[in-house]
Design goal:
Shape: globular
Strand order of the largest sheet: 2-5-1-6-7
Number of domains: 1
Number of strands: 7
CATH class: Alpha Beta
Strand content: 5-15%
Order of helices and strands: EHEHHEEHHEEHHHEH
CATH topology: Rossmann fold
Oligomer: single chain
CATH architecture: 3-Layer(aba) Sandwich
Distance between the termini: 10 Å
Number of helices: 9
Helix content: 55-70%
Structural class: alpha/beta
CATH superfamily: P-loop containing nucleotide triphosphate hydrolases
Radius of gyration: 17 Å
């Protein structure tokens, strides 16, 4: 089984491209969704988060997402602490998920693939690329947040340029090129 990483900065369209892969018959593991599930399902992780960020981060057993986001997106050390707690749990989930797949290629979509060392153990990494202006517009609309909040999140991530340099392939998702031919060409090379 070949394991393909799919990454890129916030707002580049990773989830949209993932859906194309799914429609072509390739199973996709969305690391960000699994990370969010871990934060509400994994009792051991929940306890570690409470110990690190305070018991008030969970009220009546429910994660206070906005409060946690306010903490980690304003303090890079706190973001790093959160990632170090969550990523081992997500990595294990991915490993378990892969064992259940009966296909030749799987996709792992993750925004911080390189930052979390989640690219290790993957066969190929594809980076989705888009201009910063388009990304900002997409995230403002999607998350209903201000441009400054989007820029704050962008600045907390590895630069898009660096992600592209570390990747094996780049898919341009800014409307200037059709996505399907780019994906099909990459798949032909990988298979």
């Amino acid at each position: 089984m070949k394991k393909i990483g799919l990454t890129g900065g916030i707002g580049v369209g990773k989830t949209y491209v993932s859906k194309i892969f799914q429609n072509l018959g390739y199973p996709v593991f969305n690391a960000d969704i699994h990370a969010k599930k871990c934060l509400i399902e994994d009792k051991e992780l929940i306890q570690k988060i409470r110990n690190t960020f305070g018991s008030a981060i969970y009220k009546a057993g429910e994660l206070q997402k906005k409060e946690l986001a306010n903490i980690v997106f304003k303090n890079i050390k706190k973001l790093d602490q959160l990632n170090k707690l969550v990523h081992p749990v997500v990595k294990k989930r991915f490993s378990d998920w892969c064992k259940k797949q009966d296909v030749s290629i799987v996709i792992k979509e993750a925004a911080i693939l390189f930052e979390s060392d989640s690219h290790l153990g993957l066969d190929v990494v594809i980076c989705i690329s888009c201009s910063e202006a388009v990304c900002i517009e997409r995230v403002e609309k999607r998350d209903q947040i201000s441009k400054s909040e989007v820029l704050n999140r962008i600045n907390k991530q590895m630069s898009q340029n660096e992600k592209e340099k570390l990747s094996d392939y780049v898919i341009v998702n800014d409307g200037s090129q059709l996505l399907l031919p780019q994906i099909v060409n990459i798949l032909k090379e990988i298979e």
